[in-house]
């Protein structure tokens, strides 16, 4: 055991196959378990930095910093399912090997969010002596997932702990909304933004899982998965696994049925009614298809909004429609009456249609 704590030691050849599970936070799965009960998001979580599907520029930058003993405090932010936690866990495996459970404190800040956690668990961990690898001592790693859920008092306390134990500990903060972190914490970290994954990266990873699980997924099913996940790899894998449990063949229709989303052909039909039928007819037909297929009005509004972007119409009419539908979606999020909001949706398209007729008559 070293008397002083200096630089970080990179342990590239640690045994990465038998890492015990940490006491806090998410389970760390280091090899794909054979049990069918395990969620695929954990079963196929990247185990090394080379396995991370996207954001190669960020991953390679972090890898170079770690390999050069220059790893700073990290702040990884962006939408869910974009690889933030997987990147840090893969980095920790590379740094510590089979000593990861001793060298990493993993906390989910949405559960452990108060100032007591910072003053007790985090400070106690940061202040204890590191395990030595050979002649050198390695810095420890504190992983705070969902750090934007921490209280302001906890964040101010964390700022002081980060400052005090920089020589012995590195902090990796992960969050969705970086604006909820105080500037004093942000300024002490190197920030990396994880954008939603593009369709190519998601498709490539899904094909890997489909092949490993020997699934029957036609091309239209794969496209539906990519379309519905909106750049969220975790969501894509959850939909894939859920649909597999419900259907032998993972078709587009099976995926939409499993998730409760309206099919594209249903949205085209609803949009046709909104643009061409009278108020009473549109209301009746949309209500019928909504009831028959168990669709949520908020999903219909969201998909119709995307459809409006694809059809030709004057820019001012398109903006008017999109703004009105955004208002309807907001009111639905506040649990406003579905029937009233459906009426508002049809009325918005009735006004837009009148504007289109007026523009064409000029």
Report on the structure:
The protein has 362 residues and is an alpha/beta fold. The chain has 3 domains: 40-193, 3-Layer(aba) Sandwich (Rossmann fold), CATH 3.40.50.300; 199-259, Helicase, Ruva Protein, domain 3, CATH 1.10.8; 264-361, Zinc Finger, Delta Prime, domain 3 (Up-down Bundle), CATH 1.20.272.10. Helix content is 54%, strand content 8%. The chain has 16 helices and 7 strands. The protein has helices spanning 40-43, 56-67, 84-96, 100-103, 115-127, 152-164, 183-186, 199-213, 219-229, 233-246, 252-259, 264-276, 279-293, 297-310, 315-333, 338-361; strands at 74-77, 104-108, 132-133, 136-137, 140-145, 169-175, 190-193. The strands form 2 sheets. Strands 2-5-6-1-7 form a 5-stranded parallel sheet, sandwiched between helices. Strand 5 (140-145), helix 6 and strand 6 (169-175) form a beta-alpha-beta unit. Helix 12 packs across helix 14, helix 13 (279-293) packs across helix 16 and helix 15 runs antiparallel to helix 16 (338-361). It is elongated. Residues 1-33 have low confidence and may be disordered.
């Amino acid at each position: 055991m070293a008397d002083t704590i200096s630089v970080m030691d990179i342990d590239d050849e640690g045994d990465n196959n038998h890492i015990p599970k940490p006491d806090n936070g998410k389970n760390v799965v280091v090899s794909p378990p054979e049990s069918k009960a395990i969620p695929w998001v954990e079963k196929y979580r990247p185990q090394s930095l080379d396995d991370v599907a996207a954001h190669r520029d960020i991953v390679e930058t972090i890898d170079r910093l770690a390999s050069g003993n220059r790893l700073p405090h990290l702040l990884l932010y962006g939408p869910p399912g974009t690889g933030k936690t997987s990147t840090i866990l893969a980095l920790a495996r590379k740094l510590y090997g089979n000593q990861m459970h001793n060298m990493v404190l993993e906390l989910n800040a949405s559960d452990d969010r108060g100032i007591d956690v910072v003053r007790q668990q985090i400070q106690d961990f940061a202040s204890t002596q590191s395990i030595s690898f050979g002649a050198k001592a390695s810095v420890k790693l504190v992983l705070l997932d969902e750090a934007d859920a921490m209280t302001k008092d906890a964040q101010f306390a964390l700022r002081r702990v980060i400052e005090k134990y920089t020589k012995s500990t590195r902090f990796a903060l992960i969050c969705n909304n970086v604006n909820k972190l105080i500037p004093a914490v942000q300024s002490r970290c190197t920030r990396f933004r994880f954008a939603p994954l593009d369709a190519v990266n998601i498709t490539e990873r899904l094909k890997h899982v489909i092949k490993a699980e020997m699934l029957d997924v036609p091309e239209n099913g794969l496209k539906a998965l990519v379309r519905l996940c909106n750049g969220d790899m975790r969501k894509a894998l959850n939909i894939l696994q859920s649909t597999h449990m419900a259907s032998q063949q993972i078709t587009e229709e099976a995926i939409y049925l499993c998730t409760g989303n309206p099919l594209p052909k249903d949205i085209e039909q609803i949009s046709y009614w909104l643009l061409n039928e009278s108020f009473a007819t549109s209301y009746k037909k949309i209500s019928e298809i909504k009831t028959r297929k168990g669709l949520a009005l908020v999903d219909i509004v969201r998909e119709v909004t995307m459809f409006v972007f694809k059809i030709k119409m004057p820019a001012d009419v398109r903006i008017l429609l999109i703004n009105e539908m955004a208002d309807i979606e907001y009111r639905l999020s506040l649990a406003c009456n579905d029937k009233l909001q459906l009426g508002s949706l049809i009325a918005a398209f009735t006004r837009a249609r009148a504007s289109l007729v007026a523009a064409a008559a000029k």
